[in-house]
Amino acid sequence: MENRFKGSNRNQSYLLPPDIKDWLPQKHLARYIIDIVDLLDLSAIYKKYSDKHRAQAYDPKILLSLIFYGYATGIFSSRKLENATYDSVAFRYITADTHPDHDTIAHFRKRFLQELSSYFIQIISIAQETGVLKIGTISLDGTKIKANASKHKALSYKHACHLEKQFEEEVATLMKKAEEADNSSIDDGMNIPDEIALRKDRLEVIQAAKTKIEARAQERYEKENTLYKDKIKKREDSQQSGKKPKGKKPKEPIAVPKDKDQVNLTDEESRIMPTSGGGFIQAYNAQASVEHNSYLLVHNHVTQNTNDKQEIAPTLEYIKEHPQLAITNIAADAGYFSESNTKLCEENNITPYISLGKEKHNQTLEARFKESNPLPNNPTSIEKMQHRLQSDEGKALYAQRKYKIEPVFGIIKHVMGFRQFMLRGFEQAQGEWNLICIAYNLKRLYKISIG
Q: What domains can you pick out in the chain, each with its CATH number?
């Protein structure tokens, strides 16, 4: 019976020491990531290591490869990354059979998170140099990523005012009880100093939250007031020229906070945001642009804005800062549409393909093959874009948007498993989104490299 099975003696010693290079197949994602990290300029990280360190540190190349491979394979927690260096052959290979502890991994990630923005563009440059990436047309979109905070920890301005009043009254009552207790020998079991201290601590938190909400309200007022003055001026200019102003008279903004204005006590820089499936989550709005031919991400940023209308400007600014991207066309859904966004694209020599409104499903045959209307004399930027979108070329280009960018978010959320930020705060969220976009690009480049 025993002769029918292969031998499996776990106590068998090796005649020669095992070779770490034999642990993984030649075409493995871990090997590919190590090769890419070797090509990156890590001088900014190395400069931050002092020669006066008492203990030897792990090589940044090892830690960077470890984090990149972890995010690419859906392991984001520093504790799970540490465990993987024991349990996984691929992670053992990356760390050369060493085992950085979770504190080391977490500290490295947090300390050098900002440097990762340069590595994102360096990897894009490598893809361009190898001919994998030939940029021309991109699609821009956003997705809500849950913050490392619960929406139930959000405090509204109205409720904060209510709690502030309640605790102030309770402190006054407790102070009165303390005076009465000084003149009485009766012990009611209440530790009055502790109760007062508890409420004063809560009052500090509430008052700090109110201050932040009021500051946000003032910032919002300044932006809205500028827009309000511009609209009023346009109406006045229109009236002076003898034309009747269009629409209702704009409503003057107010500087005070609204009752529903709120701040999250866990991550104050995150925001309550609506989701596509309905409902609300405490989140950040993560933006990304995908190149149409390679499906590689060439841009990313995080915003606190709940909608996408204001995200064309930072995207174009990023493109301007990296002229090597050479982007000529940008496609985006109706959430990005505005006259100013259309003009902004043209000013940056980029042709916009931004939908003017939500498209209906199951269009009629007549609507699908309707010829575009001729351009009027001296067309506006919107009229030019509308004519462009109605052309056969424009329809074909815009139709690609949905199946170019949306699958990328699907891979990030459902294949790589990244649905929530590990880190708190806006800057940390931006760094971590950059990290996940790097991990996605590495997976994509690896897939292209193996055919």
A: 18-112 (no CATH), 132-150+268-424 (3.30.420), 154-264 (no CATH)
Burial class (CB in 10 A: 0-12, 13-18, 19+), 336: buried
Paired tokens of 16? 């020669």
Where does 277-364 have alpha helices with state H? 312-321, 339-347
The answer for residues whose C-beta is within 8 angstroms of residue 352's C-beta and 6 or more apart is 329, 330, 332, 341, 342, 345, 346, 385
CA distances, 166 to each of 172, 175, 209, 214 (Å) = 10, 14, 16, 20
Contact predicate 438/120, CB 8 Å: yes
* Strand bridging mode 280-291 / 297-303: antiparallel
Task: Tell me the two tokens of residue 31.
Answer: 């090997």
User: Beta strands of 147-190 (E only): which ranges?
Assistant: 154-156
SS3 32: helix
Q: With 0-12 CB in 10 A as exposed, 13-18 as middle and 19+ as buried, what is 2?
A: exposed
* Helices 60-72, 29-39: crossing angle, 10 deg rounding: 140
* H helix count then E strand count, the chain: 15, 8
Instruction: Return the SS3 of 262.
Output: strand
* Cβ-contact 366, 348 below 8 angstroms: no
Amino acid identity, residue 353?
Y
Pairing of strands 351-354, 329-332: parallel
Give CA–CA dist 369/399, Å, rounded.
14
Buried b (16+ CB within 10 A) or exposed e, 32-61: bbbebbeebebeebeeeeeeeeeeeebebb
Distances in Å between the Cα of 352 and the Cα atoms of 21, 136, 368, 424 are 49, 12, 21, 34
Residue by residue, pLDDT tens for the chain (451 residues) are 556 767 677 777 777 667 777 888 889 999 999 999 999 999 989 888 876 555 688 899 999 999 999 999 999 999 999 999 999 999 999 999 899 999 999 999 999 988 888 899 999 999 998 888 888 899 999 999 999 988 888 888 888 888 888 888 888 888 887 777 666 555 566 777 888 888 888 888 888 888 888 888 888 888 878 888 888 887 777 777 777 777 778 888 888 888 888 888 888 889 988 887 788 899 999 999 999 999 999 999 999 999 899 999 999 999 999 988 889 999 999 999 998 999 999 999 999 999 987 666 566 656 666 666 677 778 888 888 888 888 888 888 988 888 899 999 999 999 999 999 999 999 999 999 999 999 999 999 999 988 7
